[in-house]
């Protein structure tokens, strides 16, 4: 029972990184912009958050620094693809490569740094419930924050006027422009907001999840978060569930190793990525279903004057 509680707790912890980044990318894609640079954004935010935590000792400031770094890089990406009409896919890949190299360069002096003892969190009373308590009620506040973000984003997209406008921009920017909405500014705001969430996810990874700085520590989580949006058919609640599914697969490898299961570590390391590929293949078997749920203008440039 204790091992199961630890596995569930680790699943929520690992899934939080994917959930926050996935929700950020969902905002991007609902506005019609696909950002393949999530990996780079998260890496730059991870080193920004870690450096801030080392320098100030404040996790709050570390998350703020991560969000600011992610938002700043996303703003550059947004200007390039929205105003200068560069190719979204090529620009996103360039951003990912830049973030990987830049974070490695900046992070050299922080490789040996260690953060102090992490604060322990628990909800009084509930944390003492057998199995459920250690699994669900001894988590970092941002774990619960990710759940609230998913609910808030679902409300925003489907219950608010601003969310309706955002979805309209993603479906038909020409129609939204004809109605007088500033399509480019709305898209830029969505890209910056999505980048900020990717930044929070990166900072969480280096400040809470590990907590240390290692070159390339995002290790493909940005790509998995990107795949999550398709897996979830662009629905916030499904992004959350998918994040915990992939988080569970990730933690399962460590659990099996701890139990002494005789499987090569390379096979266990492959599990999250194999699961990602399998899920995407299964979803791709029904292209009509994807086409119905996918924002119609996703990845397509918009020229106001044309």
Automatic annotation (TrEMBL):
The answer, when asked if Mitochondrion is one of the entry's keywords, is no
Transmembrane helix among keywords: yes
What are the entry keywords?
Cell membrane, Membrane, Transmembrane, Transmembrane helix
One Pfam family matching this protein: BPD_transp_2
What are the TM regions of this chain, as residue ranges?
Answer: 6-26, 33-54, 60-84, 91-110, 141-158, 188-207, 213-232, 239-257, 263-283
The protein's matches in InterPro entries, at most eight in alphabetical order, are given as: ABC_transp_permease (IPR001851)
Q: Topologically, how does it sit relative to the membrane?
A: Multi-pass membrane protein
The subcellular location is:
Cell membrane
- PANTHER family per the UniProt record, alphabetical: ABC TRANSPORTER PERMEASE PROTEIN (PTHR43370:SF2), SUGAR ABC TRANSPORTER INTEGRAL MEMBRANE PROTEIN-RELATED (PTHR43370)
| Name of the protein this chain belongs to | ABC transporter permease
Q: Which organism is it from?
A: Ideonella margarita
């Amino acid at each position: 029972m204790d091992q199961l509680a630890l596995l569930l707790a680790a699943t929520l912890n690992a899934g939080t990184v994917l959930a926050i980044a996935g929700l950020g990318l969902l905002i991007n894609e609902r506005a019609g912009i696909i950002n393949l640079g999530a990996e780079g954004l998260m890496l730059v935010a991870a080193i920004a958050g870690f450096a801030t935590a080392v320098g100030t000792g404040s996790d709050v400031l570390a998350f703020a620094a991560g969000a600011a770094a992610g938002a700043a890089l996303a703003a550059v990406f947004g200007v390039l693809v929205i105003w200068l009409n560069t190719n979204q896919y090529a620009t996103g890949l360039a951003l990912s490569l830049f973030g990987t190299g830049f974070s490695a360069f900046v992070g050299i002096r922080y490789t040996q740094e260690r953060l102090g003892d992490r604060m322990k969190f628990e909800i009084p009373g509930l944390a003492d419930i057998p199995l459920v308590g250690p699994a669900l009620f001894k988590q970092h506040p941002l774990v619960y924050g990710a759940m609230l973000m998913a609910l808030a984003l679902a409300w925003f997209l489907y219950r608010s006027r601003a969310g309706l406008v955002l979805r309209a921009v993603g479906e038909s920017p020409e129609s939204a422009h004809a109605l007088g909405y500033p399509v480019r500014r709305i898209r830029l705001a969505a890209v910056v907001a999505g980048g900020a969430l990717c930044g929070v996810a990166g900072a969480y990874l280096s400040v809470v999840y590990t907590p240390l700085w290692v070159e390339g520590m995002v290790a493909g989580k940005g790509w998995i978060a990107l795949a999550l949006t398709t897996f979830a058919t662009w629905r916030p609640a499904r992004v959350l569930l998918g994040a915990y599914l992939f988080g569970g697969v990730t933690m399962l490898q460590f659990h099996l190793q701890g139990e002494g299961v005789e499987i090569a570590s390379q096979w266990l390391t492959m599990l999250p990525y194999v699961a990602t590929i399998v899920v995407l293949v299964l979803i791709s078997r029904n292209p009509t279903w994807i086409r119905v749920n996918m924002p119609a203008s996703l990845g397509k440039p918009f020229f106001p004057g044309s």
